[in-house]
Amino acid sequence: MMSSYAYAIMLLLPLSAAMVIFQSNPYQALIMRGILGAIAALVYAMLGGADVALTEALVGTMLAITLYVVAVRSSLVMRLGVLEGEGAKNNLQWQPMLDYLRAMLKRYQLRLELVPYADDQALHQALAAKEVHGICLMDRPEPNAEEVAPHILVRVRRLAEIFATELPEAIAEAKLYRDDDLAPIPHTPTLMEEH
After folding, report:
1. Per DSSP, what are the bridge partners of residue 152?
2. What is the spatial distance between Cα 144 and Cα 105, in angstroms, rounded to a whole number?
3. CA distance linking residue 137 with residue 51, whole number of Å
4. In sequence order, which residues have a C-beta less than 8 Å from that of residue 119 and are 6 or more positions away?
5. CB under 8 Å to 159, separation ≥6 — which residues?
6. Closest to 113 (Cα-Cα) out of 101, 125, 96
7. How far apart are CA 189 and CA 195, in angstroms?
8. Sign of CA dihedral 91, 95, 98, 102
9. What is the domain partition of the chain in residue ranges?
10. Cα separations in angstroms, 175 against 1, 30, 96, 157
11. Is pLDDT at 188 greater than 50 in this prediction?
C-alpha cells in the first residue's frame, strides 16, 4: 500500500499541468513544463519504475524543453518591413519610433526584427505574401511641410489591437491590413518605357 505522501505528490501532476496550460508567459511555461516532468519522473520512481523515470527525465522533459526553447525563441518575433532607401537603421528620425516599438513589444515577449526591401512594391508584396507581420511606410513630405508620423500596416489582428491601444499617433499610426485595403501601386514608367 502506498503512503499518503505519494498521493500528495501525484496530486501535483494535474496542478502543474494546469499551470503550464494557463501560463501566459512562454518562458515561465517552459519552467513549469520542467517542473511537471520532474514530478512525473518522481512519481514513476516511487511506483518502482526507475527506468521509466530516467527516460521521462532525460528524453521526455529535457528534449521537450530544448525543442520548446528553440520554438519559442524563433516564433516570438515581429518582422517589420522597411524601405532600404530610408535608412531606417541609422536614421535619427526613425530611432524614437523603433525604441518605442521595441519597448512596447518587449512587454508581450516579442522582439522587433527589421526587414529591408528595395522599393514600395516589394514591401507591399512581402506583406501580401505574409513574409512580414507589418510594414512601415513613411510619407515623403514637401520641403516646407511638417514631418508626418510613419504609418504601420500590420496583418495580424492582435498586433493591430496592441498598436491601437498603446502606440501614440505622434510616433506612428497603425492600421490593420486586409487584402482589399491596398490599391494597386501605381506603375511609374522607366526611362526605357517612355521612349
Report:
1. 136, 174
2. 34
3. 59
4. 83, 85
5. 78, 133, 134
6. 101
7. 10
8. positive
9. 4-74, 76-176
10. 64, 33, 19, 9
11. no
- Nearest C-alpha neighbor of 159 from the set 85, 108, 121, 115: 108
Q: Which three cell numbers stand for residue 190?
A: 522607366
Closest CA to 112 of 97, 128, 90: 97
pTM of the model: 0.62
Grid coordinates in use for 1?
500500500
pLDDT reported for residue 191: 40
What is the CATH topology of the domain spanning 76-176? D-Maltodextrin-Binding Protein; domain 2 (3.40.190)
pLDDT value for 95: 82
pLDDT in tens, 114-146: 999 988 889 889 999 989 999 988 766 555 556
Per-residue HEC secondary structure of 9-78 comes to: HHHHHHHHHHHHHHCCCHHHHHHHHHHHHHHHHHHHHHCCCHHHHHHHHHHHHHHHHHHHHHHHHHHCEE
Task: Return phi, psi of residue 176, to 5°.
Answer: -80, 135
Q: Are 51 and 89 in contact (CB under 8 A)?
A: no
Q: Among residues 31, 97, 95, 109, which one has the least CA distance to residue 68?
A: 31
